[in-house]
Predict the structure.
Amino acid sequence: MNRLRKLLCIVLAVSFVVLPPSGMHFAFASAINLDATDVEAFLDTVIRQQMEEHNIPNLTASVVVDGEIIFAKGYGYANYETGKPVDPERTLFRIGSSAKLFTWTAIMQLAEQGKVDLDTDVNEYLDFEIPNHLEYKGRKDDVEPITIRHLMNHTPGFEDYMSEVFSISEDSLIPLAQHVRDNRPARVFVPGEVSAYSNYGTALAGYIVELISGVPYAQYIEENIYRPLNMKNSTFRQPIPDELTENMSKPYRYLNGEFVEGKFEFMTEPSGSMSSSAVDMAKFMLAYLQGGQYTDASILMPETVHKMFSEQFTHHPQLDGMAHGFIKATFNGRETFHHPGGTMLYDTGLYLIPDKNIGFFISHSGGNVPINIEIFQGFLKRYLSAEAPAILEPPVGMEERSRAFVGEYYQNRRSFTNVDAFLSLMFGRILVETDENGYLLVANSGETHRFVEIESGVYSNLQGSSSFGDFRTIAFGIDSLGKTMLMTDGPMSYSKAAWYETSGLNLLMLIAAVLFIIASLLYWVIRSIINKIRRGKTQNAEAEAEAEAGAHEGAKWAKRVAVLLGVLTLIFMLGFLVEGEIDPVYGLPAQAYTPVSTFTLMLDLIVSYAIVITTLGVLVFSVISWIKGYWKLAGRIHYTLFALFALVLSWIFYFWNAIL
């Protein structure tokens, strides 16, 4: 129950970095040469403008072209208290999920050595077993084993938990070996069929690196990637090692006219704990753009790098999919391999355009908007510009075919088996409608775009917006659970909600149930007080009638059970309001990133099950009240409605896994 209350507030604050669409067919026209002086002047202008507009406290960026670092610069202050400026070579920023590229690099190193095979069951490398069957809604269907390739392209079929990803308490850290055992998500999709971004999948790959290499994950990265590339200002370790502490940037959020400092964030190592500088990340980009080579060192063979830049999974030929760890995308008409990263306080982007030998890295703290992609898009438009896409005309019969895809779609990167599933009601939803001409109207993140059919089940975005996400093209199919699936570029997909799963219906039922139950509680309490006052003066006529009707002991207990249910519901709502208050610095309730006490967990468990148990009691008494004639007709109707709303509330708790 505590997690349900917390999730209700998390969804109000969670935002994610989304990737921009671009047109389908481009003719290229490079307007300006990639000159270091021009690049610096251009990025200085764009970055400072974005930082001022969005109150960004600090930022670092680097650009590599044709084997050289042509730009590396820091902006703002790494520490506002001391006035220390950002140094692109030495100042570390948290790079979030962009760090996953180091996990996949490590995996490919081991593959080169013949120590792992991308298509072998991961259980062959693990010291615990992942069952080879589905684990959702009682399904135990045997399925193919999960392989490392599935982990790399985010198709292992795991559900994903979106709360408790970050923490500001070092005490929350547990060894990687314990994390992959204790926090293993359920298998809900057949592997290799549904794209659903998975932090756990990357953590599992990192653990395989540990087991195969025989050294801790962070140490392996230091010895096999950092050292060859001379990345002296990078680490996966948490907290930051003493020798790098002075170089770690401070994260800030702009509040009430000033920058407020946030604390260091802890997270699972292989999926996002890395801190690095712009120059160190430039070295990493150069290695990939030069066939795994940097100066005299090598981290991968050229053929392996070539494989890393080859697409290994996509839902449809018209969609950009996943390469080996890199996300394949089309930005401004250019084939790009990239990986964004985000924490509560930092946002990062790494972009490689291999055919032009260009790499772009950017990271900052304190922003709530995807300025990284805005800046990268501006860079592309200046130096690798493209003409507008051709105008696409709707084919005959589009209107009728489009109607089949109308509905609400939920991210497949979500929980299916615990209370995190409740996030689906408000986070990552896609709403698909049609207009009078059959164009699809797709609503995502507060924007609605028009799509035109380009082939059966495939639609192209007629508009462009860097905040609209991976929606250059969308395609429709069927997921492994038999639901209509909306597929996009990158490691995300969405499945259509059944009518009883839709957010509108569930939120309406939740709000109505809570309001009716609490209003009834207040009515009974107030009425009881008034009756006591009246009885103190004279016997109330209604009280006499009730006494004549029997004033059954059962009627008294019926009211007592209903009042108890009302009190429990009130406790739930008060807990939601108190515990769910959004922290303005981290953008989440405190319980999303701090440990919850055992007492609170036990109290919430008791309250959640007590609501369900008392609901059963209320339902029984509602039937008895009609049989034995408790109260007047209006009273019985009210009690019956109370019971029905209580049942609705309990059903929501059950369906969205608030009780198990």
In short: The domain at 2-383 is CATH 3.40.710.10 (Beta-lactamase). The CA atoms of residues 53 and 581 lie 27 Å apart. The first strand starts at residue 58 and ends at 65. The chain has three domains: 2-383, 398-501, 506-655.
